[in-house]
Specification:
The chain has 210 residues and is α+β, with helices and mostly antiparallel strands. It is built from five helices and eleven strands, in the order ββββββββββααβααα. The strands form two sheets. A six-stranded antiparallel β-sheet has the order 2-3-10-5-8-11. Helix 3 runs antiparallel to helix 4.
Amino acid sequence: YCNLVCMKPVPVKITDWWADNIRLTHTLSTFEELQSFKASNKDEVVRLHFGLQGNYSFKYLQLDQTYDLVGGHHNLMYSKEFDIEVTPRTNTIETFGVQFPVDQFLAYTANGNDQLQRFGEAVMAGRGVMLADNWGGLNLRIQEVINQVLYCNYSEPMRKLFLLSKSLELLVLSAESYQLSSKENFIKTSTDKEKIIAVRDLINSRLNNP
């Protein structure tokens, strides 16, 4: 999560990029002990969150909701303040996030799909909201775009333009994936999902080996 203040020290490696007041953040957290911790952020922004690896749950206080998340997932969220309690279930959690200033987000999504329109209406009303109740899974295209940001070699000013385009592309891909996803839940248990994610990670680590 971008720009969070943790209530207790957590070993974290954070990399930030900026483009026209949009903040992109890659976070790698490691835990010696799997204990819950609280974190908060007082910035009023729209958060596009991607979980890249790890198993954890978090309670989102403003929405009074708890989410259990495994491996690749994404969602879009908003609240005027952001307070969470995180419970890690693996020793490593890797995330990627994009923070949009509210006015910019509303301008970008003014002509978005129906789901984004409803989300934007809640944002304008100052009401805490998630784009979808069920978190979407990371597809190959989303993963590719995130990797393009992580390994970007452009220098300024092209770097800023590149990051801006990738921020908007991730927003579009995330919103569109919910439109295309089936309502049928083919993965019935978290154990099944963990196995599928493990296979995906193994394949990705051996792409040079047919």
